C-alpha cells in the first residue's frame, strides 16, 4: 500500500490534440478545472462517477486564432455567479468566456505579442503579462493601466490578496512589485528567466526560473529560502492551501511535491515538457504536458487508479527515451556504468536517479521511497556532448551541437544546430528568423550557445550601442529658487548669459510689457504675437538660468490669447510646448524648473485650448509627473497634486476609464511619499473627484488598495479639511 504522503496516478485525461499549456481550478461546478492547449481550445473538466474516477469534458471553448498559452478564473460576481474564464493566446488577445457559451463573451485587445500569463483579483480585476515586455491591468473590458519597466518578456504575473499589490516575473531575470501602476521594488537573485510566480500569503510568494531554482520571497525584498531539485527549466508552481507546501513542474519531465521545505516526491512523466500544474479543491494535483494529456495525481487511496492502470503508466514511462544532452542525468560514460546488480542497493532519497548498462543500452531508474524500489523511467539514447567529439546529424547535416530550445512562444521545443566555427550571434539570429520568433531573444539565445559550448566560439558579440539619450544630455541637479520679480531676476542673469543667449534691452522690455499685460486685468494693451514668440524662444535658455523665464511663462499661459497661441493656435505649437515642459521635469532636472514646469501645465487648464492639449497629451504628462513623486520638495509635491486635481476635474463625468485609471495611479503613488498636508488634501480631492459617480473607477480604486492606503488620514485634524475629505472619499468607496 502506498504511503499516506505518496501521490499516485488517479487518471489520465485525453482530449487535447497538442501540448496542454495552462490549468486552473474552477469555482463551478464542484471539483472542476479548466485546461488550455496549443490546439487553440480551452476545456472545462468535471469529475465523473465512473469506476475509472476520471473527468468528463463539460465545455469546449474556441475563439483564439493561434495557440492558447494561459488561463485563469475570474471569481463569481452578481452578474456572473459562476465566474468567468480568461484565456491568453499567441494571437496577442485575451478571450473571456462564460461556462455555457463556446465563443468569447468579449475579447481584450492591447498586447502586441503573445499573452502568456494571467491572474485575477478582487472586483473582477485581471492582470496579464506578455512577450511585448509589459503587463496590463484590465477591468470591465477596458485596459486600465500598462505596467512598463521590464526589458524582456513578462512570463508570470500574480495579484497579491491585499493592499493592491501585483507581481510580474520576466525573462530579464527580475521580479517587480507594483502598486497603483508603479514599480515599488525589483527583486533580483535568479540567474535566468523567471517562469512562474505563486502567492503564499499577503506578505510572501514563490518564484521559479530557468536557472532550475525555486525561491521564496518576502514582499519587502528578502529572499528567505532557495529550493533545488529540478535539473532543467521550471515552468510552473502551485501552492497547497496550508501556504507552506507546493508543487512544481518543468522541462526535466517531472512533477515534484515539496513539503516542509524539502522535495518529498518526484513523479516522472512520459513527456518531455511538463508545462503546468494546479491544485484541485480536494487536494489532488493536475498537470498538463507536451504529449497533450492531463494527468491527475492523488494521495487518497480511494481515488488512485487501478493497479492495472498504475502498471500501464509505469510501463509507458519505462519505454520513453531520454536525451542525455538535456543535462538531466549528468555526464554519461558508457564504459563507467555498472550493471543491473547496482539496482540491488536501495536509494537514499526520493527521486534519486541511477543509470545502469544493460548490454549495449543505458537504462535510467528512479528510486521511489513510497514503494521502496527502483522504477525504470526510460532508455538513454545517444551520448553526452561533453564526452564525445562525434558530430550530431540533424536534417541531413552534421553539427557539433544540436540544442533543444524552449522559447515559450506557445510552441513546442525547437532544435538549434550549431558548429563551434559558427558565429553564435548570427546563429541565434537565423534561428529566431527561421522560427518566426521575436528578435528580443537574440541575446538570450546567443548567450545560451556560448555558455553551453564552453566558450569554444570564433565569433564575438557585437558591441553594445551607446544610448544617445543619456550622458551629456542629462540635466545637472541644482538648487535654489528665484527671488524678487521675474523680470529683475531675468535682467540679473542676462548679464552673465552665454553670448548666443544674451537678450537685448529691447527684448527684455518686450517681456516686461508682456508680463504686465497678462497679470493686470485692467491693462490697456494685450499680448502681441511678437511678445509671445519672444517668450517661447527665451524659454529655451540654458537650464541653469531659465527659471525666471518659466515664471513669466506660467503666469502668461493663464491669459486667453497666450493660452490659445502656445497651446493650440497651431497644432504643432501645443505639442512643442508640452514636450519642452516635460523635458524640464526630468528627475535629474533642477527643482525650480520642475516646479515651474508643473505650475505652467496646471495654468494651461485655464483655457480651453490648453485643456484640450493636456487631455490629448495626458499619458505622457502624468507619466512624467509621476516620476517626481519621490522628489523631496514640498512645492513640487503641491504642484504635482494640483496637476492631478486639474486632470480629475476635467475627466469628471467623462467615460474615459483609462484616463481615470492613470489619475488614480499617480495620486496613489504620490500619497506614498508626499508629506505636506496641502498636497495630501489636493490628492484626496483628486481621488474623490475621479471616483465620484463612477462605479468602475470605484472598483478599480479599491482593487489598487486605495481604501487602506488613505485610511490613516481620517484622523488628521490639522488642517481639519484633510480628515474630512478623506472620510468623504472613503464613503464614496464603500
TrEMBL record:
- Which residues does UniProt call coiled coil? none
Looking at the record, the residues that make up the PFU domain are 366-463
Q: Which processes are annotated in GO (biological process)?
A: nervous system development; proteasome-mediated ubiquitin-dependent protein catabolic process; ubiquitin recycling
Q: Which Pfam families match?
A: PFU, PUL, WD40
Q: Where is the composition biased (Basic and acidic residues)?
A: 325-353
Residues of the PUL domain? 465-732
Quick check: keyword Nucleus in the entry? yes
InterPro entries of this UniProt entry?
ARM-like, PFU, PFU_sf, PUL_dom, WD40/YVTN_repeat-like_dom_sf, WD40_PAC1, WD40_repeat_dom_sf, WD40_rpt
Q: Where is the signal peptide?
A: none
Give the molecular function GO annotations: phospholipase A2 activator activity; ubiquitin binding
Query: WD repeat ranges?
Result: 147-179, 227-259
Q: Where in the cell is it found?
A: Cytoplasm; Nucleus; Synapse
Please provide one cellular component term from the Gene Ontology annotations of this protein: nucleus
Region: Disordered, residue numbers: 323-353
Name the family: Belongs to the WD repeat PLAP family.
The function of this protein is: Plays a role in protein ubiquitination, sorting and degradation through its association with VCP. Involved in ubiquitin-mediated membrane proteins trafficking to late endosomes in an ESCRT-dependent manner, and hence plays a role in synaptic vesicle recycling. May play a role in macroautophagy, regulating for instance the clearance of damaged lysosomes. Plays a role in cerebellar Purkinje cell development.
Name used for this protein in its record: Phospholipase A-2-activating protein
Which organism does this sequence originate in? Oncorhynchus tshawytscha
Q: Which gene codes for it?
A: PLAA
